Amino acid sequence: MAKKITIEELDKEWKELIKEYIPNDNTVILRYMDFPKFMSLLQNRKLYFTRADKFEDPLEGDVPSVYIDRLLAFYKCDIYKILHDKYDLDTIKKDILGKFKKYRSETFISCWTENRNETESYALWKIYAKEYGVAIQTTVGKLKEITKSKGAVIYRVKYIDDSTTNLNVPRFSKKLTMESQNFFVYKRAEYCYENEIRAMFTTDDCYNLEVLIDNVENFIDKIYISPFAEKWFFDLIKDILVKYELNKIDVVTSKVMLNSKSK
Questions:
Q1: Of 64, 76, 95, 257, which is most buried, counting CB atoms within 10 Å of its CB?
Q2: Tell me, what DSSP letter sits at residue 203?
Q3: Kind and range of the H or E element at 99?
Q4: Predicted TM-score of the model (pTM)
Q5: 225, 247, 226: which is closest to 238 by C-alpha?
C-alpha cells in the first residue's frame, strides 16, 4: 500500500524545488529611480507598487509555453478523457490563459536589482535614472519587513526563452492550487541584465498600492548618485537628506564613472 503524502510533506518538497527563486535576507538590492520618485519616497515615506498590466512589457505575467505544454499533456491523458465528456484542448488552453491574464490587473510589483559584487548597471542608470537620478540600496530582509503587512512574496526573477524546461512555479500563497501560481517571476531572456528581485502581492483594492516605511533611515542603507550627474546634484541630495533628518544615510557617487563631471 502506497504511503499517504501529507500537505506538510508536499509543501516541504515544493520549497525545495523553488529554492532558486528565493533570495537570502542579506541579499543587497538597488532600486534605480529619477529625482521626482526619490522625493516622493522621502516626502510620503511610502514605497509604491506598480500594477502588472501597467508595465511596458506586454508579456508581463504570461504563462510560459513550456508550462502550457505540460498542462495540456495532462489533459491529453486517458483518465482525463474518461472523467470529462467534453474534451476540447483549444477551449482548455483558452480558459487557462484567460484565468492568468486577469491577474495582471490584480498583481502589484516593486522591482529591485540584485547588487551582485557591488556592481551597478549602466543600462539601468540610463533607463530609470538618467542625469538626475539615484539608486537606493537596502536588503531583501528589510524589504520583506516593510511589505509583510501586504502578504507580499519576494522572489528572484528567472529569465527564460522557448528552450527553457522544468519550470517549478512559485506561488503567491500556501494554497496548492494552479490559481495561486506566480508567473510574474519569469521574464524574457533579453532582460537578464536587470538581475531583478521582485516584491509582489495580489489584491482587488486598486486604491491601496503602497507600503509605509516607518523608518526611512533604517530602510535605506546607501544612496548612489547617477554617474551622469554633475557635482551640484550630489550636494543637493546631501542637503535634502539633512532637511528630512536623514543625514546618517551614506551618499556615494556611482562607480560607473562615465562622466568626468561626476568626480
A1: 64
A2: -
A3: helix 89-101
A4: 0.85
A5: 247
